[in-house]
């Protein structure tokens, strides 16, 4: 894989080198290419507002279901990227370009997942599992080992230069401890 292999053709037929794009520009192209679920702007946000305020909410609200679907679309793409498949007949330079393209794509997918709340130089190892993604903020140079889980039903913020080991799970979700609140008497 040579530097010319970093060139893709957009939906509009334009040829671009992905390594010359910003993470945000590449994220927009990936969103279009993979037809990632878009969130319609006109949906009622009451359930999401309640969720973020840690009040009881309906997790099957259409906006929340779409948010989880979007997150799932992105995490599937992120988790299926492989950095361990260099061709045996490729040169060292070609392998380095392949790694650059892969890392740029990973950063673009994380940018999509967090709705742009992604610091510089983050390294998140796959696989990951995320409820929504857009309630999560990652600071600069965050490192997270594989099998990370984030249930971001409430805002989750990870500060600059934080290192999280493999299998770390961050839960912003809980359920009412009082059973009468979970199952109201009728």
UniProtKB/TrEMBL annotation:
Keywords: Transferase. InterPro entries: Hexapeptide_acetyltransf (IPR051159), Trimer_LpxA-like_sf (IPR011004). One of its GO terms (molecular function) is O-acyltransferase activity. It comes from the Eukaryota. PANTHER family: ACETYLTRANSFERASE C18B11.09C-RELATED (PTHR23416:SF23), SIALIC ACID SYNTHASE-RELATED (PTHR23416). Belongs to the transferase hexapeptide repeat family. This is Uncharacterized protein.
């Amino acid at each position: 894989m040579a530097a010319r292999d970093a060139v893709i053709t957009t939906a509009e037929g334009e040829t671009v080198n992905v390594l010359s794009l910003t993470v945000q520009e590449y994220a927009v192209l990936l969103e279009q290419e993979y037809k990632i679920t878009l969130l319609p702007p006109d949906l009622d946000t009451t359930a999401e507002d309640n969720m973020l305020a840690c009040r009881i909410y309906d997790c099957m609200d259409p906006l929340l279901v779409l948010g989880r679907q979007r997150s799932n679309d992105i995490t599937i793409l992120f988790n299926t990227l492989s950095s361990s498949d260099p061709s045996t007949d490729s040169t060292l330079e070609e392998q380095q370009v392949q790694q650059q393209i892969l890392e740029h794509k990973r950063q673009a997918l994380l940018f999509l997942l967090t709705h742009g709340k992604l610091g510089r130089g983050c390294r998140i190892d796959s696989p990951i599992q995320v409820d929504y993604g857009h309630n999560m903020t990652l600071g600069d140079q965050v490192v997270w080992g594989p099998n990370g889980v984030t249930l971001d039903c409430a805002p989750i913020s990870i500060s600059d230069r934080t290192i999280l080991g493999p299998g770390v799970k961050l839960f912003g979700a809980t359920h009412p401890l009082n059973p009468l609140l979970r199952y109201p008497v009728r």
